């Protein structure tokens, strides 16, 4: 299977007033053609930073090393001009809150036409026709009314559908969706996720789906990477991850999914997310881990493949721990 995106050994530091925040600590993963890959973890674990780095949209205090290979080319070696051509055309992004991307002062039609003509070189009439088709393809009826609406005249779910329509207007190979349903209520959330699935099936683009919500992962992702404090600690096909989580952090995340009968978390993760200004040595999870051994605070565990397609970075599964633990 060919890969649309390969991230290799990505390190990102931010220079801040308080010191250097080591935000990504050697992240590697890949996304296959037509696949929905989920990146899951708590707030501040580096998911959004990973997404923004693919678009090269990080703030200027970011120092970045590693490789981001998109369709065989390293994006970190591209000029700003080349990146501008890729953004929104080959790689699109949608965010949690569509209102941050839609201009409240302009009608949806004008905004869609702007985006479409920017990349496609169509006339205004052709762009409008394309916009009508896109609106229908994201499951909204009455395109004429939508085109003539201002963003505030639409519901949150409709606005997110419009964002998806705009993101797909140039037929991208990769859609990055950063918490696309977090601001929506549960019913609408399910509809938007189903829409993303249906559109992926129809147009076969790949998706990098960022979420803190394992329910969202279960609903749509083919494979999933679990992030903790700037590292990917586990990667597996979705079903495999839920059935056989290997990393203690993944196990903890799964056990805090509320029990449907009591609505209470089964076993909360103890401790809190570490500061990335001064992250724990070795395995960054070791201060919170019930299984930590001596080696864990000294040596960073590598991500290794334990069974076909199932990777884990933890000394419990061979490597250093076998020798030194
Ligand atoms: Fe726990 Fe050690 Fe595994 Fe880290 S490497 S998750 S501290 S057992
Ligand atoms: Mg985020």
UniProtKB/TrEMBL annotation:
- For the ABC transporter domain, which residue ranges apply? 5-254
The membrane topology term of the UniProt record is: Peripheral membrane protein
One cellular component (GO) term of this entry: plasma membrane
One GO BP annotation is: peptide transport
Q: Any idea which GO molecular function terms this record carries?
A: ATP binding; ATP hydrolysis activity
Where is this protein localized, as stated in its record? Answer: Cell membrane
Tell me the keywords, alphabetical order: ATP-binding, Cell inner membrane, Cell membrane, Membrane, Nucleotide-binding, Translocase, Transport
Q: Which PROSITE patterns match?
A: ABC_TRANSPORTER_1 (PS00211), ABC_TRANSPORTER_2 (PS50893)
Q: InterPro entries from the xrefs?
A: AAA+_ATPase, ABC_Ni/Peptide_Import, ABC_transporter-like_ATP-bd, ABC_transporter-like_CS, Oligopep_ABC_C, P-loop_NTPase
Organism superkingdom: Archaea
- Name the record gives this protein: Peptide ABC transporter ATP-binding protein
* Gene source species: Thermococcus radiotolerans
């Amino acid at each position: 299977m060919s890969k649309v995106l390969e991230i290799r050994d990505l390190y990102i530091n931010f220079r801040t007033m308080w010191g250097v925040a080591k935000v990504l600590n050697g992240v590697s993963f890949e996304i296959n053609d037509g696949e929905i890959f989920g990146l899951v973890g708590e707030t501040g674990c580096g998911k959004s930073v990973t997404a923004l780095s693919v678009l090269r949209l990080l703030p200027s205090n970011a120092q970045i090393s590693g490789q981001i290979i998109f369709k065989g080319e390293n994006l970190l070696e591209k000029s700003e001009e080349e990146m501008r051509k890729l953004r929104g055309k080959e790689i699109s992004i949608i965010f949690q809150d569509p209102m941050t991307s839609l201009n409240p002062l302009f009608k949806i039609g004008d905004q869609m036409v702007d985006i479409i003509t920017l990349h496609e070189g169509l006339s205004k009439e052709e762009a409008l026709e394309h916009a009508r088709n896109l609106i229908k393809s994201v499951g909204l009826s009455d395109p004429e009314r939508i085109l003539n609406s201002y963003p505030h005249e639409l519901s949150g779910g409709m606005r997110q559908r419009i964002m998806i329509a705009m993101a797909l207007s140039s037929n991208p190979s990769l859609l990055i969706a950063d918490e696309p349903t977090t601001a929506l209520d549960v019913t609408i959330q399910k509809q938007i996720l189903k829409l993303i699935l249906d559109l992926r099936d129809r147009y076969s683009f790949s998706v990098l789906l960022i979420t803190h919500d394992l329910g969202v992962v279960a609903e749509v992702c083919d494979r999933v990477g679990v992030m903790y404090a700037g590292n990917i600690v586990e990667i597996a096909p979705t079903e495999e991850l839920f059935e056989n989580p290997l990393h203690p952090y993944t196990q903890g995340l799964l056990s805090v999914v509320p029990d449907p009968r009591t609505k209470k978390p089964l076993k909360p993760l103890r401790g809190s997310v570490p500061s990335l200004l001064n992250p724990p040595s070795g395995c960054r999870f070791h201060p919170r881990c019930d299984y930590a051994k001596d080696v864990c605070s000294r040596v960073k565990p590598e991500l290794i493949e334990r069974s076909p397609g199932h990777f884990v970075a933890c000394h419990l599964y061979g490597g250093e721990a076998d020798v030194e633990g």
